[in-house]
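Protein: WD40-repeat-containing domain protein
Species: Gymnopilus junonius
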Amino acid sequence: MASSSKHPIQNKKNKSARRSHQPAYNATNVPQNLSQTPQYQTLYIPVESPPTPAPSPPSVDNGLPAIGPSDQQNSLASDNTAQDPAIRREYITSFLDSCSPEELLFISRTITPLLKRDFVSYLPPELALHVLSFIDEPRTLTRASRVSRNWYRIVRDETIWRRMCYIHEFDDWEAEAEALSERNRLRRKKPKDTHADGGQNAPDHRSHRDHSKSFSFRRHFRNSYIIRTNWRKGGELLSSHRLPIVSPDNGTVTSLALDSDWVVVGLASSMVKLFSAHTGVLCRTLIGHDSGVWGVCLVSKGGHRMPAPDGPIASGNIEGSDLLYREAGNNVQFNLGRPSSSLSEELSRLNLQKRHDGAHVMPSEFLEHLIPQAMQKALGLDILEGIDSSNAERDSGQSMSASSRGWGQPNSIVVSGGCDKTLRVWDAKSGQCIYIMHGHTATIRCMRMLHNRPIALTGSRDSTLRVWDVQLGRCLRVLEGHDQSVRCLDVCGNKVVSGSYDSTCRLWNIDTGECLHVLVGHLHQVYCVAFDGEIIASGGLDTTVRLWDAETGQCIALLQGHTALVCQLQLSSATGILATGGSDGRVITFSLKNYQPLHLIAAHDSSVTTLQFDKDFLVTGGNDGRVRLYETQTGNFVREMSEPSQSVWQVAFIKDLCAVMCKRAGKTVVEIWSLRPTKGKKTRKSRKIAQAEGRVEVIPGSSSKWS
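Structure follows.
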């Protein structure tokens, strides 16, 4: 305030304020005479300074735009770019030191993606696939597919998963690809069917998408990997059926066969039961045998017909049988070795049979043209003329699951035989009996079906083998030579090996009926045989296992190790392993290269009743009520396959399905286990709905207590 009172104010505003505060001059101060020079005196008046506002922003009158925050960042970045790297690092360090933890976290999240480089996407596809080929762990590939869309596309390449199939030995894709192709072929043919059989050929309830898929190595690897894991850790129990045992003998499960669609069980109670391999539901009870069933075989639907060595169609030595095939659907009668009886007489005889019974075929009779048209279609008689056998390949061995590949027929076929000395042929889809073939004079003890041919072989206690055409319903030839009961047989290609209680084995040509070799060496009855086309294995009551050369008939090895009856055998040329099971509870695996024992497994406390293995696992069942799983290559125990029971009768499995037949709490128990990848749990309610919709039914004449 003192300075303001001693210095004059220079700006215009202060000057105006100064003038407003100066006092007015009176008349006495005005000079009277203008000529006189006025005398002025400077007066200093104290004035308070006005309030000073905040500084104004810089003026933009110079025509330059204002600098915003982003421009300041850009200018800062350009300034830092021009500086020395050491100075930049020092600046960044000081900047980071001044940041709060929240800001540091933000900085970390911001710069982390900038430090990643998608090297796979920048590489050419060939190099990217080469880099990924060094990964042999499927979980790593699965995680890599989730990185980005490019990685997902590269990882899904089929070459990667084909290599993974080789590494993990999932090299059975040819069978899966063929089965998928067959399903697609049948699906394309179904719309052309007329459904004249009451809807038996109507499309099934599987999704359309499943049929239209093309083969994928990635999908094959995924399914195989999950199936192998389920074998080790346990699959899903589809169903567990308990069948009451009325008498001590009639509840025994004598035979078992299964494929990807059906599980067929033969019982000593004269019944054959069919279960769905997809749901485990009891679908059919086949009644017709007069006494116990001792053998069942299952022929899968589809397939390709195998040509016989001496012609396109194997039907015995009957001339003109090709013509009979083509005219079978027209009910035309041909006198080709047929007994002299008119068509009306044949029809009258058939009308006397039960409604659900099949056509009784005696030796030298030919009645295939008299069966209903629906059954002709089920057997594939209506499409026989157009069957293409160019894709068929001769089989290298018999399936241990007692199932065989079809000859092109649209429906699965069940063949059964037993104590009533007859061989019955059934349509699995409808449950109808098609043929009842007579010829044996004693119990049919064993049977086998050829792959891709409608040929069945049976061994009987009448010491003979018979060759049957189950499509035409006729006996083609009788193989005679054994002196006692035929206990077992096995087939490969067009040859069959039979083992008998006369202590010998015989090798036969199926198409000619010729006995090629008589294998003599066992001291007691032969109970089991196995045949892979080159080597014959036989075991019996003398506790030994003998290996024979199928070409020369000479014994090439004598294998010992069991202390009791050898009752189970399986031979696999693919794995080079022979597995034997005996009444002493032991399971021994031998090498087919040097015939030395590989593993001696104390599998059970009593007799081994069933045995089967593949390249991964060995499954055994015994009279001690246990079902055990072992590794085939190491012999190590993996786990128990089922709950303990009183005794185990039969166990059979395919890649993704296992069936266990046992006795538990005084009842026959049928357990069906699925090892497939789960697509959602099937509840009991959904199975009841399936039964209500008619997809599950019991053939008339069966008792509800068996369901």
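Remarks: The chain has a mean pLDDT of 78.
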